[in-house]
Amino acid sequence: MERRPPRRRSSRAGAMHGGGGEQKQHRRPQGAASRGYHQLMGPPAPGYYTAELVLAFLFVAVSLAILPLVLPPLAPPPALLLLLPVGLLAVLVALAFVPLDAHSHLIVAAAR
User: Record's family (predicted)?
Assistant: First the structure.
């Protein structure tokens, strides 16, 4: 199979892309914006879960396992309190269909 040498850009194509054949050197700005996240915020913690967090998880897990066996059963809540999650869901569904720029529509509608 025959190999061809790589094509060179014509001077016209080079002029369109910022110069004829010369390599642009990209310089990073010097300052706070050029520093990485870890340089600004310090090194990351060695472990994601600390000992205190693991103990808190264990405490919650043991409480959820043992307390229902120890505590007496609770009376059912009032019927109106059962409608609270349904109302919250209805509000969330209504908010899902509100356009993102609803505030600007309200201002325009009030100005008319």
Answer: Belongs to the plant organ size related (OSR) protein family.
> With contact defined as beta carbons under 8 Å apart, do 88 and 96 qualify?
no
Angle ∠(88,78,67) on CA atoms, nearest 5:
90
Of 24, 40, 22, 21, nearest in space to 32 by CA: 40
Q: Which amino acid is at 42?
A: G
Alpha-carbon span 76 to 82, nearest angstrom: 10
d(C-alpha 95, C-alpha 89), whole Å:
10
For residue range 89-108, list pLDDT tens digits in order.
Answer: 999 999 998 877 756 666 65
Q: What's the pLDDT tens digit per position in 30-76?
A: 555 555 555 666 665 667 788 899 999 999 999 999 999 999 988 98
DSSP 35: S
Q: In angstroms, rounded to a whole number, what is the distance separating the alpha carbons of residues 43 and 54?
A: 22
